[in-house]
Amino acid sequence: MYDTGSVPYFPFACRYEEGDWIIRNPLNKQERRINISAYRLLHHCNGSHTWGEIVHELATKYQDSESSIHAQAEPFLSALTKEGMLWWSGQTIAWWPQPPPVFILWNITNRCNLRCLHCAVGSGAPGNDELSLEQCKKFIDDVAAYGVTYLILSGGEPLIRRDFFSIADYAYEKGITFQLATNGTLITKEKARHLASLEACAHVSLDAVNPETHDKFRQSSGAWKRTTEGIRHLVDAGVPVIVGAVVTRMNIHEIPDLYRFSETLGDVTFRILPFIPYGRGKDQQDLEVTPEEMRTLTAPLLEMKKTMKTDLVSMEFECTFGQPLLDRPDPHTHIGCAGAVSYCEVMADGQVFPCSFFDGVKTENIRDIPFPWIWENSRFLNYFRSLTISDIKGSCQKCDWLSLCRGSCIAANFVHGDIFQSNCHCWLVYEQYLKEHASRKPAVPYNRKKNRNTRASARS
Ligand code: SF4
Ligand code: SF4
Asked: Whole-model pTM above 0.70?
Protein backbone atom coordinates (compact mmCIF):
# COMPACT_ATOMS: atom_id res chain seq x y z
CA MET A 1 0.00 0.00 0.00
CA TYR A 2 1.48 3.35 -0.97
CA ASP A 3 1.90 6.06 1.64
CA THR A 4 -0.97 8.51 1.20
CA GLY A 5 1.45 11.43 1.76
CA SER A 6 3.77 10.40 -1.10
CA VAL A 7 3.54 12.16 -4.42
CA PRO A 8 3.47 10.03 -7.59
CA TYR A 9 4.76 11.40 -10.87
CA PHE A 10 4.48 9.76 -14.27
CA PRO A 11 6.45 12.02 -16.64
CA PHE A 12 6.25 10.02 -19.87
CA ALA A 13 4.29 10.69 -23.03
CA CYS A 14 1.23 8.55 -23.88
CA ARG A 15 -0.08 8.05 -27.41
CA TYR A 16 -3.55 7.05 -28.48
CA GLU A 17 -3.95 4.10 -30.85
CA GLU A 18 -6.97 2.03 -31.85
CA GLY A 19 -9.04 2.71 -28.75
CA ASP A 20 -6.23 2.33 -26.20
CA TRP A 21 -3.40 4.40 -24.82
CA ILE A 22 0.17 3.28 -25.32
CA ILE A 23 2.99 4.03 -22.90
CA ARG A 24 6.58 3.23 -23.78
CA ASN A 25 9.41 2.52 -21.38
CA PRO A 26 12.44 4.39 -22.76
CA LEU A 27 14.78 2.13 -20.79
CA ASN A 28 13.79 -1.19 -22.33
CA LYS A 29 11.69 0.19 -25.23
CA GLN A 30 8.78 -2.03 -24.23
CA GLU A 31 5.29 -0.73 -24.86
CA ARG A 32 2.27 -1.26 -22.68
CA ARG A 33 -1.33 -0.85 -23.82
CA ILE A 34 -3.52 0.70 -21.13
CA ASN A 35 -7.23 1.42 -20.93
CA ILE A 36 -8.88 4.76 -20.36
CA SER A 37 -9.15 4.24 -16.57
CA ALA A 38 -5.42 3.60 -16.27
CA TYR A 39 -4.74 6.60 -18.50
CA ARG A 40 -6.88 8.82 -16.26
CA LEU A 41 -5.10 7.50 -13.18
CA LEU A 42 -1.71 8.39 -14.70
CA HIS A 43 -3.06 11.79 -15.64
CA HIS A 44 -3.56 12.45 -11.91
CA CYS A 45 0.01 11.31 -11.17
CA ASN A 46 1.49 14.62 -12.26
CA GLY A 47 3.61 15.49 -9.25
CA SER A 48 1.08 18.02 -7.95
CA HIS A 49 -1.04 15.73 -5.75
CA THR A 50 -0.34 13.30 -2.94
CA TRP A 51 -1.50 9.74 -3.40
CA GLY A 52 -4.07 10.33 -0.66
CA GLU A 53 -5.55 13.30 -2.57
CA ILE A 54 -5.71 11.29 -5.79
CA VAL A 55 -7.45 8.37 -4.12
CA HIS A 56 -9.93 10.70 -2.44
CA GLU A 57 -10.72 12.45 -5.71
CA LEU A 58 -11.20 9.20 -7.64
CA ALA A 59 -13.32 7.68 -4.86
CA THR A 60 -15.57 10.75 -4.90
CA LYS A 61 -15.79 10.86 -8.67
CA TYR A 62 -16.58 7.15 -9.13
CA GLN A 63 -18.59 6.81 -5.90
CA ASP A 64 -16.37 4.02 -4.68
CA SER A 65 -14.55 3.47 -1.41
CA GLU A 66 -10.96 4.69 -1.01
CA SER A 67 -9.79 1.18 -0.11
CA SER A 68 -11.31 -0.17 -3.32
CA ILE A 69 -9.54 2.52 -5.38
CA HIS A 70 -6.26 1.61 -3.64
CA ALA A 71 -6.75 -2.07 -4.34
CA GLN A 72 -7.60 -1.54 -8.02
CA ALA A 73 -4.73 0.84 -8.70
CA GLU A 74 -1.95 -0.81 -6.73
CA PRO A 75 -0.89 -3.67 -9.10
CA PHE A 76 -0.65 -1.28 -12.07
CA LEU A 77 1.21 1.42 -10.15
CA SER A 78 3.55 -1.14 -8.57
CA ALA A 79 4.46 -2.49 -11.99
CA LEU A 80 5.26 0.99 -13.30
CA THR A 81 7.22 1.84 -10.15
CA LYS A 82 9.33 -1.33 -10.51
CA GLU A 83 10.06 -0.42 -14.12
CA GLY A 84 11.28 3.04 -13.06
CA MET A 85 8.44 4.83 -14.85
CA LEU A 86 6.51 6.09 -11.84
CA TRP A 87 8.45 8.22 -9.37
CA TRP A 88 7.44 8.81 -5.75
CA SER A 89 8.76 11.88 -3.95
CA GLY A 90 8.05 13.48 -0.59
CA GLN A 91 6.63 16.79 -1.81
CA THR A 92 4.48 18.26 -4.54
CA ILE A 93 5.99 20.38 -7.30
CA ALA A 94 6.78 23.89 -6.12
CA TRP A 95 6.66 26.63 -8.76
CA TRP A 96 9.24 29.06 -7.46
CA PRO A 97 10.41 32.07 -9.48
CA GLN A 98 13.49 30.91 -11.34
CA PRO A 99 16.42 32.99 -12.59
CA PRO A 100 17.62 32.21 -16.16
CA PRO A 101 20.00 29.25 -16.51
CA VAL A 102 23.71 29.95 -16.23
CA PHE A 103 24.29 27.87 -19.33
CA ILE A 104 22.47 25.64 -21.80
CA LEU A 105 23.80 22.59 -23.57
CA TRP A 106 22.29 22.67 -27.04
CA ASN A 107 22.45 19.72 -29.40
CA ILE A 108 22.30 21.54 -32.71
CA THR A 109 22.17 18.29 -34.66
CA ASN A 110 21.79 14.59 -34.11
CA ARG A 111 23.95 13.77 -37.12
CA CYS A 112 27.50 12.56 -36.68
CA ASN A 113 30.37 11.28 -38.76
CA LEU A 114 31.22 8.66 -36.09
CA ARG A 115 29.18 5.83 -34.53
CA CYS A 116 30.66 5.63 -31.03
CA LEU A 117 29.64 2.59 -29.01
CA HIS A 118 28.73 4.69 -25.97
CA CYS A 119 26.84 7.54 -27.67
CA ALA A 120 24.09 8.61 -25.26
CA VAL A 121 21.97 10.23 -27.95
CA GLY A 122 22.53 7.43 -30.50
CA SER A 123 23.85 9.93 -33.03
CA GLY A 124 24.56 9.05 -36.60
CA ALA A 125 22.01 8.92 -39.35
CA PRO A 126 20.56 12.16 -40.69
CA GLY A 127 17.42 13.17 -38.86
CA ASN A 128 14.67 15.26 -40.33
CA ASP A 129 13.78 17.01 -37.12
CA GLU A 130 16.79 19.31 -36.83
CA LEU A 131 16.06 23.01 -36.26
CA SER A 132 16.51 25.20 -39.33
CA LEU A 133 19.01 28.08 -39.27
CA GLU A 134 16.13 30.52 -38.79
CA GLN A 135 14.81 28.52 -35.84
CA CYS A 136 18.33 28.40 -34.37
CA LYS A 137 18.63 32.19 -34.67
CA LYS A 138 15.24 32.65 -33.03
CA PHE A 139 16.36 30.47 -30.12
CA ILE A 140 19.58 32.48 -29.79
CA ASP A 141 17.55 35.72 -29.81
CA ASP A 142 15.30 34.33 -27.07
CA VAL A 143 18.08 33.16 -24.77
CA ALA A 144 20.25 36.25 -25.32
CA ALA A 145 17.33 38.56 -24.47
CA TYR A 146 16.65 36.38 -21.41
CA GLY A 147 20.18 36.93 -20.11
CA VAL A 148 21.77 33.56 -20.89
CA THR A 149 25.38 34.21 -21.78
CA TYR A 150 26.88 30.75 -22.21
CA LEU A 151 25.97 27.92 -24.58
CA ILE A 152 27.57 24.54 -25.13
CA LEU A 153 27.07 23.68 -28.80
CA SER A 154 26.92 19.91 -28.95
CA GLY A 155 25.27 17.16 -30.94
CA GLY A 156 25.77 14.75 -32.69
CA GLU A 157 28.82 16.37 -34.13
CA PRO A 158 28.02 20.09 -34.32
CA LEU A 159 30.59 20.78 -37.03
CA ILE A 160 28.74 18.45 -39.40
CA ARG A 161 26.17 21.21 -39.87
CA ARG A 162 27.18 23.24 -42.91
CA ASP A 163 25.73 26.31 -41.24
CA PHE A 164 27.63 25.73 -37.98
CA PHE A 165 29.53 29.00 -38.24
CA SER A 166 26.37 30.91 -39.19
CA ILE A 167 24.95 29.74 -35.85
CA ALA A 168 28.19 30.35 -33.94
CA ASP A 169 28.79 33.79 -35.49
CA TYR A 170 25.22 34.81 -34.72
CA ALA A 171 25.54 33.70 -31.09
CA TYR A 172 28.79 35.64 -30.75
CA GLU A 173 27.17 38.78 -32.22
CA LYS A 174 24.46 38.46 -29.59
CA GLY A 175 27.07 38.49 -26.81
CA ILE A 176 26.99 34.76 -26.11
CA THR A 177 30.16 32.86 -25.21
CA PHE A 178 30.18 29.23 -26.22
CA GLN A 179 31.95 25.96 -25.86
CA LEU A 180 32.08 23.52 -28.77
CA ALA A 181 31.59 19.88 -27.71
CA THR A 182 33.14 17.91 -30.54
CA ASN A 183 34.76 14.62 -31.50
CA GLY A 184 37.54 16.76 -33.01
CA THR A 185 37.76 14.91 -36.32
CA LEU A 186 36.44 17.79 -38.44
CA ILE A 187 38.62 20.55 -36.95
CA THR A 188 40.87 22.13 -39.55
CA LYS A 189 43.36 24.95 -39.03
CA GLU A 190 40.84 27.41 -40.54
CA LYS A 191 37.99 26.23 -38.30
CA ALA A 192 40.26 26.43 -35.26
CA ARG A 193 41.18 30.01 -36.15
CA HIS A 194 37.53 30.89 -36.69
CA LEU A 195 36.65 29.44 -33.28
CA ALA A 196 39.48 31.44 -31.70
CA SER A 197 38.11 34.63 -33.29
CA LEU A 198 34.79 33.89 -31.55
CA GLU A 199 36.57 33.42 -28.20
CA ALA A 200 35.17 29.89 -28.00
CA CYS A 201 36.59 26.99 -26.03
CA ALA A 202 36.29 23.31 -26.95
CA HIS A 203 35.62 19.97 -25.29
CA VAL A 204 37.16 17.22 -27.40
CA SER A 205 36.69 13.52 -26.75
CA LEU A 206 39.70 11.26 -26.71
CA ASP A 207 39.47 7.83 -25.14
CA ALA A 208 42.90 6.28 -25.36
CA VAL A 209 46.59 6.70 -26.05
CA ASN A 210 46.38 3.66 -28.25
CA PRO A 211 44.78 4.66 -31.57
CA GLU A 212 43.28 1.18 -32.00
CA THR A 213 41.37 1.39 -28.71
CA HIS A 214 39.97 4.80 -29.59
CA ASP A 215 39.05 3.85 -33.16
CA LYS A 216 37.34 0.67 -32.02
CA PHE A 217 35.30 2.57 -29.47
CA ARG A 218 34.47 5.29 -32.01
CA GLN A 219 33.84 2.72 -34.78
CA SER A 220 35.90 4.71 -37.23
CA SER A 221 39.34 3.87 -38.52
CA GLY A 222 41.67 6.87 -38.32
CA ALA A 223 39.47 8.74 -35.81
CA TRP A 224 42.28 8.95 -33.21
CA LYS A 225 44.64 10.56 -35.73
CA ARG A 226 42.06 13.09 -36.89
CA THR A 227 41.00 13.89 -33.31
CA THR A 228 44.55 14.47 -32.03
CA GLU A 229 45.30 16.61 -35.08
CA GLY A 230 42.12 18.57 -34.39
CA ILE A 231 43.20 19.14 -30.77
CA ARG A 232 46.60 20.40 -31.93
CA HIS A 233 44.95 22.81 -34.40
CA LEU A 234 42.79 24.18 -31.61
CA VAL A 235 45.70 24.55 -29.20
CA ASP A 236 47.82 26.23 -31.90
CA ALA A 237 45.00 28.68 -32.61
CA GLY A 238 44.75 29.54 -28.91
CA VAL A 239 41.39 27.87 -28.26
CA PRO A 240 41.22 26.54 -24.65
CA VAL A 241 40.68 22.77 -24.85
CA ILE A 242 39.32 20.20 -22.42
CA VAL A 243 40.25 16.65 -23.41
CA GLY A 244 37.46 14.37 -22.18
CA ALA A 245 37.62 10.58 -21.86
CA VAL A 246 34.65 8.32 -21.20
CA VAL A 247 35.80 5.56 -18.86
CA THR A 248 34.83 2.03 -19.88
CA ARG A 249 36.24 -1.47 -19.50
CA MET A 250 37.83 -0.93 -22.88
CA ASN A 251 40.05 1.97 -21.81
CA ILE A 252 40.17 2.11 -17.99
CA HIS A 253 43.70 0.66 -17.90
CA GLU A 254 44.87 3.42 -20.31
CA ILE A 255 43.45 6.44 -18.49
CA PRO A 256 46.56 7.37 -16.41
CA ASP A 257 48.65 7.14 -19.61
CA LEU A 258 46.07 9.21 -21.44
CA TYR A 259 46.30 11.87 -18.74
CA ARG A 260 50.10 11.94 -19.24
CA PHE A 261 49.64 11.96 -23.02
CA SER A 262 47.24 14.90 -22.87
CA GLU A 263 50.16 16.99 -21.57
CA THR A 264 51.95 16.42 -24.89
CA LEU A 265 48.98 17.93 -26.75
CA GLY A 266 49.69 21.38 -25.34
CA ASP A 267 48.06 23.52 -22.72
CA VAL A 268 44.87 21.51 -22.25
CA THR A 269 42.72 20.36 -19.33
CA PHE A 270 41.91 16.69 -18.78
CA ARG A 271 38.57 15.26 -17.74
CA ILE A 272 37.12 11.80 -17.20
CA LEU A 273 33.44 10.99 -17.52
CA PRO A 274 31.52 7.96 -16.31
CA PHE A 275 30.01 5.69 -18.94
CA ILE A 276 26.25 5.52 -18.59
CA PRO A 277 24.70 2.95 -20.92
CA TYR A 278 22.07 4.99 -22.68
CA GLY A 279 21.29 5.69 -26.33
CA ARG A 280 23.57 3.43 -28.38
CA GLY A 281 25.38 2.65 -25.11
CA LYS A 282 22.38 0.59 -23.99
CA ASP A 283 23.75 -2.25 -26.10
CA GLN A 284 27.16 -1.99 -24.40
CA GLN A 285 26.33 -2.60 -20.77
CA ASP A 286 29.34 -4.84 -20.33
CA LEU A 287 31.57 -1.81 -20.88
CA GLU A 288 30.37 -0.18 -17.69
CA VAL A 289 32.94 -0.18 -14.88
CA THR A 290 32.12 -0.87 -11.24
CA PRO A 291 32.21 1.88 -8.61
CA GLU A 292 35.20 0.08 -7.06
CA GLU A 293 37.12 0.17 -10.36
CA MET A 294 36.32 3.86 -10.66
CA ARG A 295 37.75 4.54 -7.20
CA THR A 296 40.86 2.51 -8.07
CA LEU A 297 41.30 4.78 -11.06
CA THR A 298 40.47 8.07 -9.34
CA ALA A 299 42.91 7.79 -6.42
CA PRO A 300 46.13 7.68 -8.53
CA LEU A 301 44.80 10.34 -10.92
CA LEU A 302 44.45 12.70 -7.97
CA GLU A 303 48.03 11.91 -6.95
CA MET A 304 49.24 12.57 -10.51
CA LYS A 305 47.41 15.88 -10.56
CA LYS A 306 49.75 17.19 -7.85
CA THR A 307 52.75 17.06 -10.16
CA MET A 308 51.23 17.35 -13.65
CA LYS A 309 51.15 20.60 -15.57
CA THR A 310 47.85 19.60 -17.15
CA ASP A 311 44.91 20.31 -14.90
CA LEU A 312 42.37 17.63 -14.09
CA VAL A 313 38.81 18.84 -13.57
CA SER A 314 36.79 17.51 -10.64
CA MET A 315 35.51 13.98 -10.85
CA GLU A 316 32.33 12.41 -9.57
CA PHE A 317 32.73 11.50 -5.87
CA GLU A 318 36.15 13.16 -5.68
CA CYS A 319 34.84 14.83 -2.52
CA THR A 320 35.05 11.49 -0.67
CA PHE A 321 38.85 11.73 -0.79
CA GLY A 322 38.64 14.97 1.23
CA GLN A 323 37.18 16.02 4.54
CA PRO A 324 33.42 15.84 4.97
CA LEU A 325 31.47 18.94 5.98
CA LEU A 326 30.71 18.63 9.67
CA ASP A 327 27.14 19.92 9.59
CA ARG A 328 24.30 17.67 8.59
CA PRO A 329 22.76 19.03 5.39
CA ASP A 330 19.44 20.82 5.37
CA PRO A 331 16.93 18.16 4.22
CA HIS A 332 15.49 20.73 1.81
CA THR A 333 18.79 20.95 -0.07
CA HIS A 334 18.28 20.40 -3.78
CA ILE A 335 19.06 16.87 -4.95
CA GLY A 336 21.74 15.98 -7.48
CA CYS A 337 23.43 18.15 -10.07
CA ALA A 338 22.52 21.56 -11.46
CA GLY A 339 20.21 20.13 -14.17
CA ALA A 340 16.97 22.19 -14.29
CA VAL A 341 18.39 24.52 -11.62
CA SER A 342 21.10 26.47 -13.38
CA TYR A 343 21.50 24.39 -16.49
CA CYS A 344 19.42 22.45 -19.01
CA GLU A 345 19.71 20.72 -22.31
CA VAL A 346 17.95 21.46 -25.59
CA MET A 347 17.76 18.42 -27.83
CA ALA A 348 18.27 18.43 -31.61
CA ASP A 349 14.51 18.34 -32.16
CA GLY A 350 13.95 21.30 -29.79
CA GLN A 351 12.78 19.50 -26.63
CA VAL A 352 14.01 20.86 -23.30
CA PHE A 353 15.26 18.44 -20.62
CA PRO A 354 17.26 18.81 -17.39
CA CYS A 355 19.85 16.67 -19.24
CA SER A 356 19.86 14.32 -22.20
CA PHE A 357 18.88 11.08 -20.48
CA PHE A 358 15.14 11.54 -20.46
CA ASP A 359 13.94 10.92 -23.98
CA GLY A 360 10.35 9.73 -23.89
CA VAL A 361 9.42 12.22 -21.19
CA LYS A 362 6.68 14.68 -22.09
CA THR A 363 8.33 18.10 -22.24
CA GLU A 364 7.99 21.36 -24.12
CA ASN A 365 9.66 22.24 -27.41
CA ILE A 366 11.34 25.50 -28.38
CA ARG A 367 9.73 25.22 -31.84
CA ASP A 368 6.36 25.85 -30.20
CA ILE A 369 7.12 27.89 -27.08
CA PRO A 370 9.80 30.50 -26.38
CA PHE A 371 12.60 29.15 -24.18
CA PRO A 372 12.07 31.55 -21.23
CA TRP A 373 8.50 30.36 -20.79
CA ILE A 374 9.60 26.72 -20.86
CA TRP A 375 12.41 27.35 -18.40
CA GLU A 376 10.08 28.95 -15.90
CA ASN A 377 6.93 26.90 -16.41
CA SER A 378 7.88 23.42 -17.57
CA ARG A 379 6.35 20.81 -15.28
CA PHE A 380 9.29 18.46 -15.75
CA LEU A 381 11.91 21.11 -14.99
CA ASN A 382 9.97 22.30 -11.96
CA TYR A 383 9.63 18.73 -10.75
CA PHE A 384 13.41 18.40 -10.77
CA ARG A 385 13.79 21.71 -8.97
CA SER A 386 11.39 20.55 -6.25
CA LEU A 387 13.29 17.35 -5.39
CA THR A 388 15.32 17.40 -2.19
CA ILE A 389 17.99 15.21 -0.66
CA SER A 390 15.36 13.81 1.70
CA ASP A 391 13.92 12.01 -1.36
CA ILE A 392 17.06 9.84 -1.63
CA LYS A 393 16.70 6.34 -0.23
CA GLY A 394 19.35 4.25 1.52
CA SER A 395 22.95 4.81 2.49
CA CYS A 396 23.38 8.35 1.08
CA GLN A 397 21.21 9.56 3.96
CA LYS A 398 23.91 8.57 6.46
CA CYS A 399 26.83 9.75 4.34
CA ASP A 400 29.20 12.41 5.66
CA TRP A 401 29.59 13.91 2.18
CA LEU A 402 25.88 14.24 1.41
CA SER A 403 25.90 18.04 1.67
CA LEU A 404 28.76 18.21 -0.84
CA CYS A 405 27.56 15.58 -3.29
CA ARG A 406 23.76 15.83 -2.89
CA GLY A 407 23.43 12.29 -4.24
CA SER A 408 25.17 13.21 -7.51
CA CYS A 409 23.74 12.19 -10.88
CA ILE A 410 20.08 11.17 -10.67
CA ALA A 411 19.90 10.59 -14.43
CA ALA A 412 22.36 7.72 -13.91
CA ASN A 413 19.99 6.36 -11.27
CA PHE A 414 17.06 6.75 -13.65
CA VAL A 415 18.82 4.63 -16.26
CA HIS A 416 19.37 2.04 -13.53
CA GLY A 417 15.65 1.99 -12.83
CA ASP A 418 15.16 4.09 -9.68
CA ILE A 419 15.89 7.80 -9.64
CA PHE A 420 15.79 7.97 -5.85
CA GLN A 421 18.16 5.12 -5.01
CA SER A 422 21.50 5.93 -3.39
CA ASN A 423 23.82 6.67 -6.26
CA CYS A 424 24.47 3.68 -8.49
CA HIS A 425 28.03 4.86 -9.30
CA CYS A 426 29.24 5.72 -5.82
CA TRP A 427 31.89 3.53 -4.23
CA LEU A 428 30.63 4.29 -0.71
CA VAL A 429 27.17 3.04 -1.62
CA TYR A 430 28.79 0.02 -3.24
CA GLU A 431 30.82 -0.72 -0.08
CA GLN A 432 27.71 -0.47 2.02
CA TYR A 433 25.95 -2.85 -0.35
CA LEU A 434 28.79 -5.35 -0.02
CA LYS A 435 28.64 -5.13 3.78
CA GLU A 436 24.93 -5.80 3.76
CA HIS A 437 25.24 -8.64 1.27
CA ALA A 438 28.27 -10.10 3.05
CA SER A 439 30.19 -12.49 0.86
CA ARG A 440 28.85 -12.12 -2.67
CA LYS A 441 30.68 -9.55 -4.74
CA PRO A 442 29.05 -8.75 -8.06
CA ALA A 443 31.20 -8.56 -11.18
CA VAL A 444 29.19 -5.69 -12.67
CA PRO A 445 27.55 -2.63 -11.09
CA TYR A 446 25.69 -4.12 -8.20
CA ASN A 447 22.29 -2.73 -8.88
CA ARG A 448 22.01 -3.61 -12.54
CA LYS A 449 18.81 -5.48 -13.13
CA LYS A 450 19.01 -8.50 -15.35
CA ASN A 451 17.90 -7.86 -18.93
CA ARG A 452 17.24 -4.25 -18.41
CA ASN A 453 18.96 -1.26 -19.80
CA THR A 454 21.12 0.80 -17.54
CA ARG A 455 22.61 4.20 -17.11
CA ALA A 456 23.51 7.16 -19.17
CA SER A 457 26.67 8.04 -21.00
CA ALA A 458 28.49 11.06 -22.23
CA ARG A 459 28.95 11.77 -25.88
CA SER A 460 31.26 13.45 -28.36
S1 SF4 B 1 27.12 7.83 -0.46
FE2 SF4 B 1 25.69 9.16 -1.53
S3 SF4 B 1 26.00 11.20 -0.65
FE4 SF4 B 1 27.80 9.96 -0.09
S5 SF4 B 1 29.31 10.40 -1.64
FE6 SF4 B 1 28.17 8.58 -2.31
S7 SF4 B 1 26.49 9.33 -3.62
FE8 SF4 B 1 27.33 11.08 -2.43
S1 SF4 C 1 29.50 10.23 -28.96
FE2 SF4 C 1 29.79 12.16 -30.04
S3 SF4 C 1 31.18 11.65 -31.69
FE4 SF4 C 1 30.39 9.73 -30.97
S5 SF4 C 1 28.60 9.26 -32.26
FE6 SF4 C 1 27.84 10.37 -30.45
S7 SF4 C 1 27.81 12.51 -31.03
FE8 SF4 C 1 29.13 11.43 -32.52
From this structure: yes
